[in-house]
Amino acid sequence: MTTIKDSVHDHIEVEGVAAALLDTPAVQRLRHVKQLGTVQLVYPSANHTRFEHSLGVYHLASEALAHLGVDGKRADRVEAAAMLHDVGHGPFSHNIEELTHRHTGKYHDDVDGLLAEGAVGEVLREHDLDPSRVADLVAGEGQFGQLVSGELDVDRMDYLVRDAHHTGVPYGTIDTGRLVRELTFVDGELVLDEGNVQTAESLLLARALMNPVVYTHHVARISKAMLRRAAERLLEAPDVTAGQVRRMDDHELLVALRTNPESGGLVGRYDRRDLYKRAVWAEYGDVPESVREADHERVRDLEAEIAATAGVTDADVILDVPSEPSMRESTARVVVGGEVRRLEKQSPLVSALRTAQRNQWRLGVYAPAPATDRVGRAAASVLGLEADTLISDVRRGLPTTLDEFGK
Fold first, then answer.
1. What is the dihedral of CA 396, 400, 402, 405, to 10 degrees?
2. How does pLDDT run across 295-311, given as a tens digit for each residue?
3. Global confidence as pTM
4. Do 25 and 118 meet the contact criterion of CB atoms below 8 Å apart?
5. SS3 label, residue 81
6. In angstroms, rounded to a whole number, what is the distance separating the alpha carbons of residues 92 and 368?
């Protein structure tokens, strides 16, 4: 058994197959993949990694299994899946996942090949565990897959408290102890036991509050978009494949981007935090449905049209269209009066939070600071937006007096 001091859960005891997996290259690689990608440019202390998060997920899974009375090979499989659930992540976590998926067809939870090969596969087989069954749990399949990847999963519980801790933002603070203790299975479905509507709501509320403040903060989104665009240029090089990029860590990707002439300029700006600025920041209801639903190729065509209209190069325009607002946690099940009900049917908070989430949605168009006015006007014309969606960044350091604030 190995005991590890964790900044969130205090002491974590790692044993059995999880302890054997700890020092495999696939798990150790996660020490070099930041949990929050580019959010560190907003919150400087948000430098925690997928490695420590994986330890936290393993810890909460172990606690849940003990509470549920699950042991033996079933528990070993779930604990292995918890420790390995993030080994499929590419560099900077989710930041370039859509890009690599377009080329490889794989998301971060498609780990069958990764678990079957190399040291991880050897460890699993040495502990009489089938790598494919562990991979299924990582993908959220089966009864116990819900514990690793589902509406009430321990992954979500750990990343909320861990991200809140490392950013210093209090909104993600939830009672993981109570959440784990109140988990139960009803007809093979993972639910929160009687009297826990508010417990489920706390998970929903924490995610809803963390989203605009941390996960979709405009600086994080701009830096993510710049990094993604740089990675797209890197993949245009004949000697770099998306499969190779997917298995890089953060440092390896930055080195590859810096040394590639097509991506070097953008990543240099990222390194200096000389980021593009918002030319457009448009609300959900102000954006035509055809733009909200645009696929990658259509987005690139719109960027080229905006650039041509503004009289700038294609490289000076990034159109950032978020996915449709969703709230997966609202489908979590809770027991009420002896009956299993979906949280969205039981909690009046859900509809309010759905409205808030839609109100927080923003389409962004980003450009270098000197070009934002031109790009903003061009984007409004090309995308069919109202003029009040344009952005004028607050100017810092202008002298004023207290009297002026009363005018």
1. -70
2. 999 999 999 999 999 99
3. 0.92
4. yes
5. helix
6. 23
Tokens of 246: 């997917």
Taking the alpha carbons of 156, 161, 165, 167 in that order, is the dihedral positive or negative?
positive
Query: How far is the CA of 240 from the CAs of 88, 172, 191, 232, in angstroms?
Result: 19, 38, 45, 11
Query: 3-class DSSP state for residue 178?
Result: helix
Measure Cα distances from 243 to 24, 254, 279 in Å. 20, 16, 34
301 and 152 Cβ atoms separated by less than 8 Å:
no
Q: HEC profile for 216-282?
A: CCHHHHHHHHHHHHHHHHHHCCCCCCHHHHHCCCHHHHHHHHHHCCCCHHHHHHHHHCCCCEEEEEE
pLDDT single digits (tens) 218-264: 999 999 999 999 999 999 988 899 999 999 999 999 999 999 999 99
C-alpha radius of gyration, the chain, whole number: 23
Three-state SS letters, 391-403: CCCCCCCCCCCHH
DSSP bridge pairs for 185: 190
Compute the distance between CA of residue 76 and CA of residue 69 in angstroms, rounded to an integer.
13
